[in-house]
Amino acid sequence: MALNKIPPPIPDKLQNLIFAFRESQALFAAYELGIFDLLHDSKTLLSAEDIAAKINADSDATARLMDTLVALELLEKTQEYATSWLYSNTKIASQFLTKSSPDSVGGYITHSTKLVYPLFGNLQSAVREGSTQWMNTFGMSSEDMWKSSYHNEEARLRFLGAMHSTSRHTCHAVATAFDLSNFHSCCDLGGGTGAMAYTLCQYYPNMKITVCDLQSVVESAHHFQPTPEECLNQANVSYVVGDFFQTDLPKAELYVLQRILHDWSADKIDSILTNVFTCLPSGGGLLIAEMFLSDDKRGPKRTLLQSLNMPVLTSGKERTAAEYKEILKKHGFEDIQTKKLQDSAGLDATLCRKP
Ligand SMILES: C[S@@+](CC[C@H](N)C(=O)[O-])C[C@H]1O[C@@H](n2cnc3c(N)ncnc32)[C@H](O)[C@@H]1O
C-alpha cells in the first residue's frame, strides 16, 4: 500500500522535554527513599534486591528506578556474576545527594518534591489567573507566602534547609564579586540561616554582620550554624528579629538583599528600597544578589524557569541587569555596578551606594 505522507519522526528535543519531569521525579524519589545514602554508607556494593529490602520496597520497581539512575549518570553498575548487578554512587551523587555530605543539595530536592513540584502542577491556572497557587494546591492562603511557607516547624525548617543548601554554594561568588572591605558593619536583610553572613565574615574579618529575618526564622537559625572549624570569625555574626517593610532597620554601612527582591511585587520592592535608602548613612552600600535575565529575555533558561516559579509561588519575578539599575536609580542610588557571576548557580551581583 502506498502511503501519501509518512509522518515525520518526533524531534528528540520535544521528546526530551515531554520526559523531563520524569527525570526530576526519578531523582526526587531516589533521594527521598534514601538510596544514595544507603549506597554511600554501605561497605560493599549493593544489588537492587539489597536496596529494596533495606527500604522495604518492591524489588522489581527498585531495580528499574536504579537502572534509570544509571542512565541519568547518578549511579554506576557493575556485573558480579552473569546475572547479578551491583550498584554504587557516582562522584556527583556521593558529594551532592547524600545527607551526610556538607555539600548536599538535598534540602533543595525536598523543597522541590514537597512544594515546588505540586505548585507547578497548577502552572496553567497561574498563567490564566495571574495569581499564586497556594490555595489551589494546598488549600492555603496566598496572601502571605511566608505564613504559608512556615505554617509549621517542619515546613519552616524544610524551606530554610532548601535556601541553606543552595546558599552555601553561591555565597562565595557573591561575597567576593566586589571589594567590600571598606564596610565595617553589614545587615543581611532576609538573611535566613546566615549562610551569607558566615561567608562574609570569613572574607572580611573586620566586618560585623547582623542577620535580620522574621522571628520564627531567627529562632530556627541555630540548626544551621557552622562549627567554629567551619567558620573562624563567627563571633562577628549576630541575629536580630526584624521586618524589611518597617522603617527601623538595624543600622549598617552595608545592606545585603540576596534572593529577596525577586519574591515581591514592584510596590513592595519600592517599600523595601525606600527603607534601605533611608536607613543607610551617606556613602553606605547596598549589595543585591539576584539572577539576571538577558536584555532580550531569551535566557538564561534556568533564570526563565525560576521566573516561572514566581507566578505559582510568589508575586515577584526575575529581571534584567538594566531593569534592576533603573529601579535603583529611581530610589536615588548611585555608582550602580552589575556583575555576571560564575559558579553561583545563576546568581549575579549588584553593588550601589547612597550619595
Ligand atoms: C528566598 S529567602 C532568601 C534567604 C537568604 N537571603 C538566601 O539567599 O539564602 C527569603 C527570606 O526573606 C525572609 N523574609 C520574608 N519576609 C520578610 C520580612 N518582611 N522581613 C525580613 N525578612 C523576611 C524569609 O524568612 C527568608 O529567609
How is the main sheet built? 8 strands, mixed
Kindly, what is the distance between the CA atoms of the first and last residues, rounded to a whole number of angstroms?
80 Å
The geometry reads as: globular
Q: What ions, cofactors and ligands are bound?
A: S-adenosylmethionine
Number of strands: 10
Unreliable sequence segments:
none
Order of helices and strands: HHHHEEHHHHHHEHEHEEHEHEHEE
Strand content: 15-25%
Mean pLDDT: 95
What is Rg?
23 Å
What is the share of helical residues? 40-55%
Number of helices: 15
Q: Structural class, from secondary structure content?
A: alpha/beta
Oligomer class = single chain
Give the SSE map.
Elements: H1 12-33, H2 35-41, H3 48-55, H4 59-71, E1 75-79, E2 85-89, H5 91-96, H6 106-120, H7 123-129, H8 134-138, H9 145-149, H10 153-175, E3 185-189, H11 195-203, E4 208-213, H12 215-220, E5 237-241, E6 254-258, H13 266-279, E7 285-293, H14 301-313, E8 319-320, H15 321-330, E9 334-339, E10 347-353
Parallel strand pairs: 3-4, 3-6, 4-5, 6-7, 7-8
Antiparallel strand pairs: 1-2, 7-10, 9-10
Helix pairs in contact: 1-6, 3-4, 6-10, 10-11
